[in-house]
Amino acid sequence: MSHYSHAKFVLSAPDIRHLGADQGVEVAFAGRSNAGKSSALNRITRQKGLARTSKTPGRTQLINVFELDTERRLIDLPGYGFAQVPVEMKKKWQRALGEYLQQRKSLKGLVVLMDIRHPFKDLDQELIHWAVKSNLPVLALLTKADKLKSGQRKAQLLMAREASLAFCGDVTVHAFSSLTGVGLESVEQVLNQWFGLPGKQAPTEISPAS
Ligand SMILES: Nc1nc2c(ncn2[C@@H]2O[C@H](COP(=O)(O)OP(=O)(O)OP(=O)(O)O)[C@@H](O)[C@H]2O)c(=O)[nH]1
Ligand SMILES: [Mg+2]
């Protein structure tokens, strides 16, 4: 049974002043527009319509809060780096995003989602550098892994893991597909650790007879 399948939508906030109390543990999903943040949340929670997804970049314009229980929340953040959005709107989102990331005390882990075909773009790197500086663990999730053949996927993953060393921080890299579920178990293991939830039970060892 997954810890995440009971997630419930709580609220959408234009900025941190409209979020609930800053207590418990939050894990936020960040990344460029269209990287697959909302799709990943839906896959992890096994709820197809929980977070709204779209072919049009810039779908998620608010901070969306999903609750696992009273002490644990998943956060779907607005995407960054979408050129076609009017400047004023872009500024508003970036401000909301920056404030959330810098001021939210309950934020205990950051999932940075990047298309596996072009990971670690400038804004992704900036975000990860900032997280490392703030001692926030990062899960770099290479999304849409189903778009690559197995060989290419492994090569991209290796390349990204190598690149992640440059951040000199707690940065874990996994490949993921919302479509096929590739990487889901690895993501859950990281989330369980951040949320302080029990992981998969290790098989019971039978002690040798003495
Ligand atoms: N093939 C494939 N397509 C995906 C995957 N994940 C997301 N997509 C598609 O990518 C597009 C964007 O997905 P979203 O989940 O809405 O992306 P987002 O990062 O939440 O985007 P914003 O809210 O605009 O920031 C949609 O058309 C999804 O169907 C995946 O794992 N595989
Ligand atoms: Mg979204």
TrEMBL record:
GO BP annotations listed: division septum assembly
Domain EngB-type G: 23-197
A Gene Ontology cellular-component term: cytosol
Keyword Metal-binding part of the UniProt annotation: yes
SUPFAM superfamilies hit by this protein: P-loop containing nucleoside triphosphate hydrolases
Cofactor list: Mg(2+)
Keywords: Cell cycle, Cell division, GTP-binding, Magnesium, Metal-binding, Nucleotide-binding, Septation
Alphabetized GO MF terms: GTP binding; metal ion binding
Gene3D superfamilies: P-loop containing nucleotide triphosphate hydrolases
PANTHER family in the record: ENGB-TYPE G DOMAIN-CONTAINING PROTEIN, MSS1/TRME-RELATED GTP-BINDING PROTEIN
Annotated function: Necessary for normal cell division and for the maintenance of normal septation.
Similarity field: Belongs to the TRAFAC class TrmE-Era-EngA-EngB-Septin-like GTPase superfamily. EngB GTPase family.
Protein's recorded name: Probable GTP-binding protein EngB
Native species: Bowmanella pacifica
